[in-house]
Amino acid sequence: xxxxxxxxxxxxxxxxxxxxxxxxxxxxxxxxxxxxxxxxxxxxxxxxxxxxxxxxxxxxxxxxxxxxxxxxxxxxxxxxxxxxxxxxxxxxxxxxxxxxxxxxxxxxxxxxxxxxxxxxxxxxxxxxxxxxxxxxxxxxxxxxxxxxxxxxxxxxxxxxxxxxxxxxxxxxxxxxxxxxxxxxxxxxxxxxxxxxxxxxxxxxxxxxxxxxxxxxxxxxxxxxxxxxxxxxxxxxxxxxxxxxxxxxxxxxxxxxxxxxxxxxxxxxxxxxxxxxxxxxxxxxxxxxxxxxxxxxxxxxxxxxxxxxxxx
Length: 311
Description:
Layout: E1 4-9, H1 11-17, H2 33-38, E2 41-49, H3 58-75, E3 80-82, H4 86-91, E4 95-102, H5 113-120, E5 122-126, H6 143-146, H7 152-163, E6 167-169, H8 175-184, E7 190-191, H9 208-216, E8 220-223, H10 227-230, E9 237-238, H11 240-254, E10 259-261, E11 271-272, H12 281-289, H13 294-309
Parallel strand pairs: 1-2, 2-4, 3-4, 4-5, 5-6, 7-8, 8-10, 9-11
Helix pairs in contact: 11-12
């Protein structure tokens, strides 16, 4: 099995909010160094996620999370190192930690802060989480809200992010915002942790038209293991069979080049057939049984993500 790249986990948020759960070396969460080693993980994208509300200083919070990231990598430098590019990944003989940000409001409307994030090595940046912010609007079951486009600052942010070599991440973004990214992005973008809306009709997933547009722009979609995004069943279980169903459909609609992994570990709960990152080999085996070749799975596990990270 090819070493995998996971495009999204919320492990540092959980460690920051609940330090009793452990640290990066060993914790009671779904991602730690031991589990990454056991699961043949090449690199995980660790999100600096701030649960923003109007009474919180988001920039201060994201700086605290970054401090935790730096401290944990220093404490565990024999086993894990920050990687920023595909070249870094290939030349590294340790686990890789890729820094990302989730919730565009962390910059508090100041696009100059994107340069600071770039200096930190941030490579992915979601324009929204689940609330309206200075850049745009989140996915919504309300059709009127879901159709709203990006705000002017959000459109400006796309250009600045591309200038800073930060990938635009449309997971959590509403449909109108997605199509604005399609119109304004000059480089490939991604949905780091979003599934197929055809398979599970929720606003966090991508429609077939969106998947095709993503592919046309050279982008990728990371498979999310959250139960509600995999199935509409009342039992709320995250089953490998549903993961395979989504992968097969995305492959059919937008092709091999769009397939990737974005587990959302430590940001999801429920009955998880794959409860942590050490057990991702179960999905590899299931996809092989579904007649995916090892060469095709190599694309999903690593190669497509490395293409977007760039050399």
